[in-house]
Amino acid sequence: MSAFTITTIVPQLPSLNLERTSQFYRQKLGFREVGRYPDLLLLKLNEQELHFWLTTDDALGASCS
């Protein structure tokens, strides 16, 4: 078995509205948007990155807010 090192972990979270999620993280927390696709949002603050995927499941979106 070979040894390996994990250098980065990127949380992937659901979002009911990618635009509102982007605005909150940028305006309130200082993240910057580094990527946007129809169903995926990529945000970064210093070396920390968050990915948000679009969902229409209200229960899932509310439980992660």
UniProtKB/TrEMBL annotation:
InterPro entries: Glyas_Bleomycin-R_OHBP_Dase. It comes from the Bacteria. SUPFAM superfamilies: Glyoxalase/Bleomycin resistance protein/Dihydroxybiphenyl dioxygenase. This is VOC family protein.
